[in-house]
């Protein structure tokens, strides 16, 4: 059996060997609780503090502004629910987009049931939210704006810096879900003027089950859990030290190789698209090739259906997806593509997301694109 060509790095990534080695060493040798004052506890605290410093530096934040969580979903929930509920006496209006990750969308739906008024901005056909639309939606009673940095299904990068500038003189807090951008884009929270930023370890070749939320100093945020003093009383519970250290190691590696990886992933994406052109199949790119993260490519194949496409890709040894891994197994069409093209569009049912990462080569990508083209032709002829 041929080795699987893994092109679903936007869903999750393999753990980097150096991060895995770091975790294994800690599992064997460091067992103290970071909150304990004895020697094993102090050693654990030192490792935790070092990891927090590494993570803070990746986004130009202060170490005290990093809250470790169980991943992107918890970070999004803590930011959206925590900020909204802490500031509701100032207003109950929230602005978000219709194609956010469900960690944000479902949190906003919950807040609507609690009496909040949520405005959902629609993207254009390239998957872009325009700053002027945010400005038009802004009200005196708006307390939170939450817009993802890069869409997880089509990869389009949003004008977060421009939106941050619009909000700089307003009472509203600004949150961005940067899960799909962290590790592949240069992020500076001060330049972006965001108050909250979410990221996840397993998207950057770290372990699953750990992430962080950047909370700008002075921001009002109530915790969603109770029971301890950890993480500045924002996220109680004994810290997942081994995974946090693995996350920091992966973040360090990602930072050191950022420019090299950006260039490599763009080359892979271009090679993939060029192979489709050479093979002469009909396809459309969903989103913007130019204004997108380098590792995500969402492609529509007219006349096909996504389910047999994915099954045949899997049988051919290619791992890809129809969108967010958090909604895998559902029969509902992509809410992202529906927001971009409308529910009547064929693209919501014939699009596949290919995403590149650690271990992918140009040869692999060309082989995968050639096999994909063959599968598309076969499905169209059946």
UniProtKB/TrEMBL annotation:
EC top class, as a word: transferase
Stated name of the protein: cysteine desulfurase
Superkingdom of source: Bacteria
One Pfam match: Aminotran_5
Record's keyword annotation contains Lipid biosynthesis: no
InterPro entries attached to this UniProt entry: Aminotrans_V_dom, Aminotrans_V_PyrdxlP_BS, Cysteine_dSase, PyrdxlP-dep_Trfase, PyrdxlP-dep_Trfase_major, PyrdxlP-dep_Trfase_small
GO molecular function, one term: cysteine desulfurase activity
Gene3D superfamilies referenced in this protein's UniProt entry, alphabetically: 1.10.260.50, Aspartate Aminotransferase, domain 1, Type I PLP-dependent aspartate aminotransferase-like (Major domain)
Catalytic reaction annotation: (sulfur carrier)-H + L-cysteine = (sulfur carrier)-SH + L-alanine
Protein family: Belongs to the class-V pyridoxal-phosphate-dependent aminotransferase family. NifS/IscS subfamily.
Protein EC: 2.8.1.7
Keywords: Iron, Iron-sulfur, Metal-binding, Pyridoxal phosphate, Transferase
Cofactor: pyridoxal 5'-phosphate
Domain Aminotransferase class V residues, every copy: 5-366
